[in-house]
Amino acid sequence: MSNINRFRRERAKQLRSNTTEPEQVLWRALKNIPVYGSHFRRQVPIGPYVADFACLKARLLIELDGGHHSEDEVAAKDEARTRWLEAEGYRVVRFWNAELSENMNGVLDTIYAALYGSPQSEALALPTPPRPDGRPSPSRGG
Taking a C-beta distance cutoff of 8 angstroms, is the pair 91, 61 a contact? Predict the structure, then answer.
């Protein structure tokens, strides 16, 4: 394993050990969403980034943003990160931390709709979507 991959894995492990309260709340709530044939993981290294939550089979990433993400410099980095992840075939859904306490049902409906097409869709086993370019997933060292 290269030093950079080792660093990313160690960073993800460190982030899992120091989970924020909003991350803990969403992690518990994600267990209420049926994800047949897959699951959500937290603090997942993908390329040069660590995603807050990921359902790799659905290529869906969930990012939680605190207030500092509204600062211009941080927002610009978030946008570049999202563009890179989307170019790799991932879908990125972002929520403000405050949304979890103000509208958890709406957050979960949005995640469910991202997985299955709409909040009213039946949850079925998730097919493995192809990457746009056919390359292996960057989370697997590709």
Answer: yes
